[in-house]
């Protein structure tokens, strides 16, 4: 059976681990809020790009390209457009 000193030491260790875990959660929540703000801030840019592509398709008419084909299947392709950063 554990002695009183060992139990106190173990309780102290558990409390310290809880403090560290809480701090990590706070940091993660802060980072998530910042990323959400950045994503919402970039929404007008992507809407403008989407409108440009729609206008281009309307202007050109029918566009036949393998990347624009609608296919049956469960896989989804996401094209990421980003800067050099």
Walk me through this protein's architecture.
It is a single chain. This protein is mostly helical and 85 residues long. The protein has one domain (4-68). It is built from 2 helices and no strands. The chain is elongated. The mean pLDDT is 88.
Average pLDDT figure: 88
Approximately how much helix is present in the residues? 55-70%
Order of H and E elements: HH
CA distance, first residue to last residue: 58 Å
Structural Rg:
26 Å
> How many domain regions?
1
Number of helices: 2
- Report the portion of residues in β strands: under 5%
Taken from the alpha-carbon principal axes, the silhouette is elongated
For this entry, give a set of tags.
single chain; 85 residues; mainly alpha; 66% helix; elongated
How is the topology of this model organized?
Elements: H1 4-41, H2 43-60
Task: Briefly say what this structure is.
With 85 residues, the protein is mainly α. 66% of the residues lie in helices and 0% in strands.
């Amino acid at each position: 059976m554990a002695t009183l000193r060992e139990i106190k030491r173990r309780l102290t260790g558990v409390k310290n681990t809880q403090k560290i875990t809480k701090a990590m959660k706070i940091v993660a929540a802060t980072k998530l809020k910042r990323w959400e703000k950045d994503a919402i801030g970039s929404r007008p840019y992507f809407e403008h790009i989407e409108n440009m592509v729609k206008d281009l398709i309307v202007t050109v008419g029918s566009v036949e390209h393998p990347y624009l084909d609608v296919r049956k299947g469960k896989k989804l392709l996401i094209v990421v457009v980003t800067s050099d950063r």
